[in-house]
Amino acid sequence: MPSATLGPRSGNRKVAVAGVALSDCGRVDETTPYALHAQAARRALADSGLDRSAIDGFASAGLGTLAPVEVAEYLGLRPTWVDSTSVGGSTWEVMAAHAADAIAAGHANAVLLVYGSTARADIKAGRRTSNLSFGARGPLQFEVPYGHTLIAKYAMAARRHMHQYGTTLEQLAQVAVQARANAAANPDAMYRDPITVDDVLSGPMIADPFTKLHCCIRSDGGCAVLLVAEDHVPDLAKPPVWVLGSGTAVSHTTMSEWDDFTVSPAAASGRLAFERAGVRPSEIDLAELYDAFTYMTLVTLEDLGFCAKGEGGAFVEKGRLLRDGELPVNTDGGGLAACHPGMRGLFLLVEAVRQLRGEAGPDRQVRKPDGRLPQLAVASGTGGWFCSSGTVVLGRG
Fold first, then answer.
1. C-alpha gyration radius of the chain
2. Beta partners for residue 110, in sequence order
3. C-alpha triplet 285, 287, 289: angle, nearest 5°
């Protein structure tokens, strides 16, 4: 069990991560998203050592007309607690927070979170096309006619940070360079060849100031995470990783309602998660952050309190985000290099748990300066165009 120094937890029962797994990832042409869900779920259950009958809660989003009912049926599950929250990339941290609260309160005992997508394969096969906008209904109808695409929203926010704080393109490029360096030792990463700042800056322009390598990759893949009540811990195949605290927040839909382009909702979700976990940002050993674009990593580091507002550019320099850096970030290579099949938030939790368990492998395992395994990790997902955020603090027992 974690020591009292790790801080208080809400609810009556402690909540542990029992199992995590990836499905096949990267280029997966001959399968369906349902099959990736099933593959990841089976692997996570095997990782936990528990029987499928233990699962009484299920959370899924992004697939099926009646998500998560269709996916649960495909997996042969009949849960009595469900969640289909869909808030973009932060969905999975928000779902993890909901599931942890439900388990703590006794409304569920073992909740499976699962995701799978063949976004890349579908486009290659012509089964779908790329979307420039989330839609043209509701408040979004006032932006869509002006060509205000998803990536343009992030680009505008990045330009504001550059104008207000002097952040440079070279500093933003460092995020991509270090993500690719972290991916180099990850056999599951889609892109592992090193890149330089010049490579990032000289690439084709996508939305000023973002060139291609400032943007996440498009891949196929899935993953699953099983959360359980502390009662299950004696039956687990591996030592538990504990959910110490979580926080969620939403900000805006239309850019005109965003108070400050340089502040994301992670400023609120992170503060809540750290307070509820009873830890400080300075105590965190590694961070898994949503990185659809390089600016997202930079501003989330600021908003979680790893550096002051406006100092993100300087913070990401000098290799601080590398596996052996001052604050290892996106140790699998992140969405910029490893895997990004659509909503990447659940992958953040999988990587954080593997690092805390010491399962990342000799070439990419994070260790403290004294050689010990990391004790605390944070996973923070972002949805939409900084519209929503979920942050989860995890601790090794």
1. 20
2. 228
3. 175
What would the DSSP string read from start to end of 13-29?
S-EEEEEEEE-S-BS--
Q: At 357, which helix (H) or strand (E)?
A: helix 345-357
Q: Strands 110-117 and 57-59: what pairing? A: parallel
As a whole number, mean pLDDT of residues 196-224 equals 96
10 domain residue, yes or no: no
pLDDT digits (tens, 9 = 90+) for 8-26: 444 589 999 999 999 988 8
CB neighbour list of residue 267: distance below 8 Å, 6 or more residues apart = 249, 303, 304
What pLDDT band is residue 142 in, cutting at 50, 70 and 90? confident
Instruction: Report if residue 175 sits inside a domain.
Output: no
Q: Is the pLDDT of residue 138 over 90?
A: no
Q: Are 355 and 287 in contact (CB under 8 A)?
A: no
CA distance 141 to 313: 34
Q: Residue 25: which CATH number?
A: 3.40.47.10
